[in-house]
Amino acid sequence: MRFNYTKKNVDVHQAAKDMIEKKLSKLDKFFKDDTEINVTVSKIRSQMNLEVTIPYRDIIFRAETLESDLLTATDKAVDILVRQIRRNKTRLEKRLHQKLPIADYDADTLSHEIVDEELDYKVVKTKKFPMKPMSVEEAILQMNLLGHQFYMFKNAETDEVNVVYVRKDKNYGLIEPEM
User: Is residue 8 a contact partner of residue 41, using CB atoms and an 8 Å limit?
Assistant: First the structure.
């Protein structure tokens, strides 16, 4: 696996990188050797924030942890990623029409653990609303007025459907489709 590091407000030494790579090597059984892993390490107040993103085919696996030390954060991120893969194994197989994006994994490893992979996603409410074109700022204002964490709107500048959302750091994000 190839590792790409991004650092924010923190210096990550080679020993820390080696430790992160050793911990994330537990995911080797799930992915091919040329899989790219994006690791972002940042310091928020006195805690270490670790984000691990693994884009694989059309699926993105992601884990984010906030812990007092990098070792604990890495352990939790690996646990989150393994849980995501195992929990969604059946759904991912159906979506990809082939085996889970796992290269040469040991099937016994997955079957020995109790996995709630048979849970179905259940839509309990459908909501329709008119989409009038608006600016990003207007969409953020509307989202805040409604007290929502995200808001879907038709961008007046691009004429595309976009989503604005509140990030964990209390800033705003914008999701734009890419065709």
Answer: yes
Q: Which two tokens stand for residue 64?
A: 């984010």
Alpha-carbon gap, residue 165 to 148, rounded angstroms? 8
Side-chain half-sphere CA neighbours of 72 within 13 A: 7
Q: Identify the structural domains of the chain with CATH numbers, from first to last.
A: 2-111 (3.30.160.100), 133-175 (3.30.505.50)
Of residues 9, 103, 11, the one with CA closest to residue 56? 103
- Tokens found for residue 79: 């646990």
What is the per-residue pLDDT across 103-143, written as a single tens digit (0 to 9) for each?
A: 444 444 444 444 454 556 788 889 888 888 999 999 998 88
Backbone angles phi, psi at 45, to 5 degrees: 55, -115
Q: Find the helix or strand (DSSP H, E) in which 109 lies.
A: helix 107-111
Residues 6+ apart with CB under 8 A from 47: 66, 67, 68
Q: Which of 89, 104, 92, 49 is nearest to 72 (CA)?
A: 49
Residue 40 is given by DSSP the state E
- Minimal CA–CA distance to 100: which of 110, 114, 111, 90? 90
Length of the chain (residues): 179
- SS3 of 16, please? helix
The model's pLDDT over 38-55, given as tens digits with 9 standing for 90+, comes to: 999 999 888 999 999 988
